[in-house]
Amino acid sequence: MSEATSSDTSKGLSSGSVGLLGAVVIGMSCIAPAYTLSGALGPTAAAVGTHLPAIFLVGFIPMLLVAVGYRQLNRAMPDSGTTFTWTSKAFGPWVGWMGGWGLLAATILVLSNLAGIAVDFFYLMLSQLTGNDSLADLAQNVPINIFTCLVFMAGACWISYRGMEATKKVQYVLVAFQIIVLLWFAISAYVHVANGTAFGGLRIEAEWFNPFGVPSFSAFAAGVSLSVFIYWGWDVVLTINEETTGSSTTPGKAALATIFSIVVLYMVIGLAVLSFAGLSDQGIGLNNAEIQENVFAALAGPVMGPLAILLSLAVLSSSAASLQSTFVSPARTLLAMGYYGALPKPFARINPQFQSPGFATVAAAVISSLFYTFMRIVSEDVLWDTITALGMMVCFYYGVTALACVWYFRRSWFRSTKSFFTNLLAPLLGGVLLLVFFVQTSVDSMDPDYGSGSQIGGVGLVFILGAGILLLGLVVMFTQYLRNRSFFQQRFETTELPVLE
């Protein structure tokens, strides 16, 4: 694997097909601000109240620190396997395999969630267009919901299967549309607050930005775990490094540009929603459990009036766009794992016409569809629970990847001030913070009241999802070890590449 992870390795992907702007657009698409905020604002506000902006900023900090580590690793080893490849090089095949599994688990969780949000807003849009309120209720019909979800999943899979050129063209339009509508929504909400016509009408206060005002560390960790979810997805720009112009430098620049753009947008929207809706547990207050899974569906009408359908379209396009671009990451991770022998060889197949990981893309779609179908039948609160479990998975694999950067570049920590910051301090702080949040959230999620309150045998469904997925990863890993031990028995090259300044 030491040879295969060199920067000139080619797996057959379409090299040079994405530039800096295209990578940032795909990164923002994968984060999906309209969809993400609609699903996360309610649960995050329920956990931390008016300290929502503070938690958004706190969640941004480890993302930025981890992104520095990702940038360094990508400069040394631009490889579509990202977490899997890098952690294998740093810690060996066993840790590398589980790191890759964490990434795959997170993307499978979010793909199912994206499809669920898309279904809700699709039928809401139909009801708004036709004036027939009963159409919106079709999203609650389990068989119809699942069927519609599978249709969306198949469409997104088809676009991803056709490669990065098709992906890029779709994303330019959908990302621009959702950002314009979100800013329109925020301005409208601020106008309502200023005119005294907002439901909550809270005045923005400095204390909202104080993370130390959160009442408990458990609430703080839960809030950060959820805020990690809202930033998750920027690392897709690293998984397309083999298809990017300047594969060793452009993805790192795109990651940082994406994160900074998103935090500004989130602060604008988050403050608008919090000040407009307030924290009441009645009506459209953010503590009303009936609206927390889908805040924008409840706020669109009161904020935007007859133009509410634009917000529905924005969230629908956001979730559909992210559903499509999110396929990029698991498909290329599966491709790398197949390429290096960590999974069966069919996962390494490249479609010769589109130069895309065809088999891996279809496999990701099938697994995500099966997971969503199962979860929708088991829990009516599937969206909330998968969001919370997703935050746990993201903390896990981001944290492991950041520490891989620290260890891989261990011989260069003190060679310069810049090297100390980029190869040690930043990724170490980011990785440790995220792993602490992962452990705290895992412990807290055992409580049946955590998340939506769904449980199985007295244990919270969020914990069962998170722990069950990691346990399943161990089972699959040992099964693969028994089938093909060559990957797990090889000695990995541990000598780092030249120091990156």
What report would you give on this structure?
68% of the residues lie in helices and 1% in strands. The longest helix has 38 residues, at 93-130. The protein has one domain: Up-down Bundle (Amino acid/polyamine transporter I), CATH 1.20.1740. It has a two-stranded antiparallel ribbon. It has helices at residues 20-31, 33-48, 52-76, 83-91, 93-130, 142-161, 164-195, 217-231, 236-239, 250-277, 295-304, 308-326, 328-339, 358-378, 382-408, 417-444, 461-483, 486-489, and strands at 455-456, 459-460. The relative contact order is 0.20. The protein is mostly helical. Strand 1 (455-456) and strand 2 (459-460) form a beta hairpin.
Class per helix and strand makeup? mainly alpha
* % residues in beta strands: under 5%
Order of helices and strands: HHHHHHHHHHHHHHHHEEHH
N- to C-terminal separation?
Answer: 25 Å
CATH architecture: Up-down Bundle
Membrane topology: Multi-pass membrane protein
Protein name: APC family permease
Pfam families: AA_permease_2
Organism: Kocuria gwangalliensis
Keywords:
1% strand; 18 helices; membrane; mainly alpha; disordered N terminus; AA/rel_permease1; Amino acid/polyamine transporter I; 2 strands; 501 residues; cell membrane; APC_superfamily; transmembrane helix
